[in-house]
Amino acid sequence: MLRARIISTGSYVPENVVTNTDLEQIVDTSDEWIIERTGIRERRIVDGNQATSDLACEAALKALKNADVKARDIDLIIVATISGDMPFPSTACFLQQKLGAKKAAAFDLNAACSGFLYGLHIANSLIKSGAHKKILLVGAEVLSKFTDWSDRTTCVLFGDGAGAVLLEGTKEKCGIYSTHIYSDGSLSDLISLPGGGSKYPCSKETILKRLHFMKMKGNETFKVAVRTLEELASRTLEENSLDPSQLSLLIPHQANLRIIQATAKRLGLSTEKVFINIEKYGNTSSASIPIAIDEAVQSGKCREGEYILLEAFGGGLTWASALIRW
Ligand code: UT7
Question: Residue whose CA is closest, atom 27 of ligand 1?
Answer without folding.
Answer: 219
